[in-house]
Amino acid sequence: MNNSFIQINNISKHFADVKAVDDVSFEIKEGEFFSLLGPSGCGKTTLLRLLAGFEYPTSGNLLIDGTDITALPPDKRPTNMVFQNYAIFPHLNVEKNIQFGLRKLGLSNDEIGKRVKEVLSLVKLEGYEERFSNQLSGGQRQRVALARALVRQPKVLLLDEPLGALDKKLRDEMQLELRTLQKNIGITFVFVTHDQQEAISMSDRVAVMNNGKIQQLSAPNELYKNPKNIFVSDFIGETNFLKAETKSSDGEFINVSIEKLGEFKIKNNLNIATNSSDVVCSVRPESMMISKVKSDWDICLDAKISQTSYLGEMTRFYVEAKGINKIITVSSQHFDNQSFENNECFISISLEDICLLNKK
Amino acid sequence: MNEKNNTLLIYTLLYFGFLYVPVLFLPIFSFNDANYMSFPLAGFTTEHYEEMWSKRNLHKALWASIKVGVVASVISTIIALFAAKAFARYKFRGEKISYGGIMMPFLIPEIILAVAILIIWVNLGFKLGLVPVTIGHTLFCTPFAMLILIARIEGFDFSLEEASRDLGENAWGTFFRVSFPLYLPGIVAALLLSFIISFDEFILAFFLTGSDATLPMYMWGQMRFVQKLPHVLALGAVIIVFTTFIVLLAFWLRNVGQGKLKKDIAMKL
Fold first, then answer.
1. Which CATH number goes with the domain that contains B143?
2. By the CB < 8 Å criterion, does B175 face chain A?
3. pLDDT level of residue A217 (50, 70, 90 thresholds)
4. Chain A residues with a Cβ under 8 Å from any Cβ in chain B
5. Which strand ranges, in their side-by-side order, compose the sheet holding A18-28?
6. Is residue B111 in some structural domain?
7. What is the DSSP letter of A52?
8. Does pLDDT of A358 surpass 80?
9. Cα-Cα end-to-end distance for chain A
10. What ipTM was estimated for this complex?
11. Residues facing A240 on adjacent strands
């Protein structure tokens, strides 16, 4: 397995005075399902289009499988793309759409026929050869776009928010299916999305982007559990931020005073400076416990429920806790909106679930 | 409410009457067995239509008009296609000014355009004839063709062209395999309308033809002789039918792909 199959070296792309991609460097492994995740305008789509060849970088270079592709036009690159709107050719039927990219490959008619057949069965569209784009559902169009790109057997498949236009149920199905497909064929996928849940559930690794820069590049569970900065912590999943100040440190641990709750020893994974007020503590809603009676956890607070929202598999509580002057969110699978009398409850936090972050 | 509707109905009828009744006299009198355009009608005849077959000058003028129309519409549609693509797809410096530049012949009085071309052409030492007429018509038709094509291309999904490049086609392949077939209804509409505009055009032809008359020039020439009037009426009637058909066809084509007709066409292609 080639660990630096795709190399992105100091890539910048400026549009007039906007730095869409700002000096980004990283590598993507061969056969990896890699996601670029971020809010709209973060530069993820620009980066994908740079890989596809629809844009050329202002500076930096791109390598795929050892070949410098920086200056190559899209038709000379070993990549194929699934477009956000699928871009199915409306004047061609499904079969002709899929054959479109095979003409330049110099294959025999038998080989073309065979490949089209194979890819149609791969995306489960047998029997749809004669249909036109307007006779297909959103999900089917997406499969045609996928088949059309895969039939060329690219080294890298680029996907630009391909699930965005589908309804939720279909999207969940396609997530699983795409993931399985990618594992089976072993082609490197670079997947762009703004949906953090989608990125986390499908990818081997995720690069979180904001303002044209990579904020963090890690495996999904790392992103969730050990965010490197406040942006990632906020963008991935839900979290509560608590005001904090760092005091003295004894190497691995650092003393942190959190709001009016007191001083606690917290693991300092990110080497955060001592005696700084530019820090914040992040606690996930599901890592806290809501209960009717006091607990013996590291922190246990009297609290009052101000709102609840029942979500079926869990309930989200919005509570005012003593010593914290903002509403915090706690989720529970055990209790629901009927569970508490007079809205009185206790909120417990374990120190190991507190994540200390720099504000900037 | 009802009263208001009636007023509008009367207005509409008057409007269309004003527009079309005079035109209708042409076909009516073209079948009238007399040399004068006056009521009462003298009787039915197709003699004026038969007469058209024997007029060699008419045939020559028709052929001249077709030549000019075909060349002018093809050249202006090609120019208009490039321009329309640029305006619909890209943002560039001087966009507004070049757009205005191309639209100019649309706004300049035709007679001024004609005189300008005449002066330059003659001063360059060339002879008047169908060539300067074709040049004038090309100038004059380009803005029309461009407006039609911009309307077509503006709704175009440019990711289709990117998809084609992505699937291994170069710029030319992309044009011929993707853009051209999808622009085609617009291109044909632009060709047809340009042809009709050139075919009907009088002022430019009047100044620039010299001795090679186009069809409108021929008609104008015949009007001076009373006994020749009836076959000009017949000719006019034929032109009305032909022009109406082409214009309707052009508008139908222009709308293909912008409504539900797209599906029908896509299925046939």
1. 1.10.3720.10
2. no
3. very high
4. 52-54, 73-75, 79-81, 83-85, 87, 89-92, 100-101, 103-105, 132-134, 148-149, 152
5. A18-28, A6-15, A59-64, A67-68
6. yes
7. H
8. yes
9. 37
10. 0.83
11. A283
Residue B75 CA to residue B136 CA, distance in Å, equals: 12
Q: Which domain holds residue B56?
A: 48-268
Per residue in A239-258, pLDDT tens? 999 988 888 888 788 888 88
Strand partners for A300: A348
Look at chain B and report how many structural domains it folds into. Answer: 1
Q: How many CB atoms lie within 10 A of CB A307?
A: 12
CB A145 within 8 A of CB A84: no
CB within 8 A of B79, min separation 6: which ones?
Answer: B138, B142, B145, B146
Residue B240 vs residues B23, B190, B234, B235, B247: alpha-carbon distances, Å: 9, 19, 10, 9, 10
Q: What is the 3-state secondary structure (H, E, C) of A108-127?
A: CHHHHHHHHHHHHHHCCCCC
> Is residue B13 situated within a structural domain?
no
pLDDT at residue B260 tops 70: no
**Domains of chain A in sequence order:** 6-233 (3.40.50.300), 238-358 (2.40.50.140)
Closest CA to A102 of A51, A149, A65, A54: A149
pLDDT tens across A145-155, in order? 999 999 999 99
Q: Is position B6 within any domain?
A: no
Low-confidence winner among A11-15, A176-180, B50-54, B136-140 (lowest mean pLDDT): B50-54
Of A53, A79, A91, the CB nearest to B181: A91
Cα distance between residue A62 and residue A11, in whole Å: 8
